[in-house]
Amino acid sequence: MGGSSTDLDSVIGTSPDGRSVGIVTPRSAHFDEPLTLKGGAIIEGYDLAYETYGTLNAERSNAVLICHALNASHHVAGWYAQDPKSVGWWDNMIGPGKPVDTNRFFVVGVNNLGGCHGSTGPCSIDAKTGRRWGSRFPVVTVEDWVAAQARLASMLGIERFAAVMGGSLGAMQALQWTMSFPDKLRHSIVIACAPNLSAQNIAFNEVARQAIVTDPDFHGGDYYEHGVKPQRGLRVARMVGHITYLSDDEMANKFGRQLKNGKLSYSFDSEFQIESYLRYQADKFSDYFDANTYLRITKALDYFDPALEYGGNLASALARARAAFLVVSFTTDWRFSPERSREIVKAVLDNRGQVTYAEIDAPHGHDAFLLDDERYHHLVAAYFDRIAAEVKA
Hints:
Elements (H helix, E strand, L loop, with lengths): L26 E5 L3 E2 L5 E2 L2 E8 L9 E5 L26 E2 L4 E2 L4 E5 L14 E2 L4 E2 L9 H14 L5 E7 L1 H12 L4 E7 L7 H15 L17 H15 L2 H7 L18 H16 L2 H13 L10 H4 L6 E7 L7 H13 L4 E6 L13 H18 L2
């Protein structure tokens, strides 16, 4: 989420619990059929990294697709055998006995096209040239990701998802599924979302992108060939984004004006705890994420606007949706405020569609969708009980 992303670092690294799906193994699917992107470029062949948890039932009716937010991946739940700390980013939500119960549902996590965790992206080798894609990798959109995910579904033998679910940028994908493939999902779980970015959100994304492209190590996006990474820019981008994921109250409660060393040094060193925290998170992020991917994902956020082709009328854009919706917002999420979620609810209702809406009183800001909150998790669990009854999961 530079735009709407999210503080996944607050989740990654937690210890596996007794209700985890356990050790998981990522897989890769290759697609030879060219994919024409919304921007006009054509990807002639590509890979998607994905993971699955649970068992697809005989009717193939219990599949749930999890769409990821900005700095996440296909690794949604469980952990890798070689690294017990590599816990999936939504492990508190997905697993045996959890809100999305893998004893009943077959859950699919997928890394988006343009990503940097196994799917074809800017840091992948272009088979045509034998070089990394780098700056030549095209801009991708939410619609492109959904189109690629639909091909993965077909490959897995899934004709219709019981639900497509996501938070933040992932929720935009869950929303887009209802428009791109209205007959291929029963439910759309849209959490901490907005139907498009505000000017303020786009502005945050632009600051993040400028930090990256003006880094001397960026080399126009072809930094791989120079053996460097624009880590300084990526660090700043991450800091900008991170600030927006937390509420003011959460930041005050967590850090206040606490000093790192107990006294002011009257210098430009990291003195306040919040400075130290941001630098730490930024360092971690710049080690594992790719700057070119960050640029493209924030652009995908900026471009997402399903109402654009309908004169700004979201209800018209959603008129073709057939899914039932669960829309969830959080009171302190100022990045994607509850008012923005209510725009989606209104559009569904204007079409006489089915929608359940919940506004969770949570202090954590945008990141709340990733965190443990009893009311939030009970709500999702109850909704999935309903889905399970429908699909006999």
